[in-house]
Specification:
alpha+beta; Arc Repressor Mutant, subunit A; Dna Ligase, domain 1; 2 domains; 3-stranded antiparallel beta sheet; 3-stranded mixed beta sheet; 6 strands; flat
Length: about 150
């Protein structure tokens, strides 16, 4: 975790920002719960447990800054709630997600599935792709198995 914090600190410094104690507390929560796709309110409640002096507005500002600097990605899985997801270290693109429409589980795909598509878009349309997002909505293995058992 300390290595990632140091990397994020360097990213902030490269854009003339500091890793303040408030920002570090927010980053630590994101690192500790990396698989959870937390909302700003979730992050705030977890930060508050460790640092009660940090307010909700500070957490929101920190998440927006981290999003602008592409340290985190702000995502919405169609439920109206913005969630924050740390970019994998060294990742060129945002990773993909599988969202279960039955139970709401979210699984990550770290492989970049769209390299060929990006090449086609660049060659055919002359469009320089900087990033992309891909979310599949469907039914996870567990929910499929539960449906089979119920029938």
């Amino acid at each position: 975790m300390e290595h990632r914090i140091e990397q994020i600190k360097k990213q902030l410094h490269a854009h003339s920002y500091k890793l303040t104690p408030q920002r570090e507390a927010t980053v630590r929560v994101l690192l500790e719960r990396e698989e959870d796709h937390l909302s700003a309110e979730d992050v705030y409640l977890l930060v508050k447990e460790k640092s009660p002096e940090i307010g909700l507005a500070t957490v929101y500002r920190t998440l927006e800054l981290l999003s602008e600097l592409k340290v985190v990605d702000k995502i919405n899985f169609g439920d109206g709630v913005s969630r924050y997801d740390l970019r994998k270290e060294g990742a060129k693109h945002f990773h993909h997600h599988l969202v279960c429409i039955e139970c709401g589980s979210v699984e990550e795909i770290v492989n970049d599935l769209l390299e060929d598509v990006e090449r086609i878009v660049q060659n055919e349309w002359g469009f320089e792709v900087k990033d992309h997002r891909l979310t599949f909505h469907g039914i996870c293995k567990q929910c499929q198995a539960a449906t089979v058992k119920a029938t």
